[in-house]
Amino acid sequence: MSGQPANAKLRPMKTIHLLIADLFLPPELGVSTDLNLSSLRKILARSKKSSAFTSMPMSLENHLSRLFAVPCCPDAPIAAVSAAFDGMGEGCWVRADPVHLHLQRDRLMLSQPETDLSEAKILCAALNDYFAGQGMTFFAPHAARWYLRLDKLPELETTPLSQVVGRNVRGLLPRGKEATHWHKVLNEIQMLLYAQPVNEARETRGLMPINSLWLWGCGANAAPQKTYEQVSSDEDLAGMFAAAAGVPFAKLSSHWQSENHRQLLVFAGLSQALRNQDLEAWRAALQQFETGYAKPLWQALRSGKIACLQVDILCQGQSLQLTRADTWALWRRNQSLADYTIKE
User: Fold this and answer.
1) 251 and 263 Cβ atoms separated by less than 8 Å
2) What are the phi and psi torsion angles at 242 (to 5°)?
3) CA geometry: angle 249, 254, 258, nearest 5 deg
């Protein structure tokens, strides 16, 4: 007989949904064995694979859209979500973020240069003068987030900027029915930016010129749904989705904490380090994740403070689920993180 009063209301058990990108590296990079990742290794070893994913890598942008019940048709509507966050109002929005393209042998490599808001506004003004009367208006409410407003959304399929930084962009440019037209527009943009005094001044200061824009995120606008009680992340985009859905948002602290019963955690520190091609920063971020998140989540799950932990690993398209009972499945042997490295 329980000592709990018969009329007492049972509080719902906490469920934590953890989203993490770039947890596993290609074999040539590997992971040093000197990292203490005991809790993370237990979580990976004792979790059960869910059918939520199809073992195909997914971008953070597309997955956040999925979690907030926003369709990707074919693009995730990142421009609409971020434009609302940046106070841009309604419209047919495309992200048109400033980038630097440079030839490396036969590859066209993309970098994301540091930008200044005053420079951004000067360059957008030049673009607006050039394209006046063509139904295109450029805006720069944020130094790194630029927008293109159109009369109607283009029939394009694009690649998120996060997926192309540091990569060869040949084959990743906009695709679809209107691709030829927009490739022409991009060529005109590049020629215009090349001649801008702002870029000459940047090169004089030893900075990469802003010599192109990356068009992406032009999916149809749809309101994100309130599928969580709280969102915490070190990634601005997660905060934008939370704001659009009316969900409380907090920047990730050094250690996991939650008073809510359905929380989304988005840990993007590993991706940020890799985009900067900084393996030491990636290692430091992974160790911080182990100490501040994997360990307390494991302990909370094993003690019954949370009922279920779901871990979505974007780089391998896996969704893992772990309950309190799974934590005692001692026959599921731990593996080193190197055993999970991405296989080509």
Assistant:
1) no
2) -60, -45
3) 45
Alpha-carbon Rg for the chain in angstroms: 22
Give per-residue burial for 77-101: e unless 16+ CB within 10 Å, then b.
Answer: bbbbbbbbbbebeebbbbbbbbbbb
Alpha carbons 250 and 240: distance in angstroms, whole number: 11
Bond preceding residue 74 cis, omega within 30 of 0 = yes
SS (H, E, C) 181-209: HHHHHHHHHHHHHHCCHHHHHHHHCCCCC
Whether residue 319 contacts residue 341, with contact meaning beta carbons closer than 8 Å, is answered with: no
- Span 166-225, pLDDT tens digits: 899 999 999 999 999 999 999 999 999 999 999 999 999 999 999 999 999 998 888 999
Domain boundaries, the chain: 14-70+224-340, 78-216
What pTM did the predictor assign?
Answer: 0.89
Pairwise CA distance, residues 241 & 223, whole Å: 9
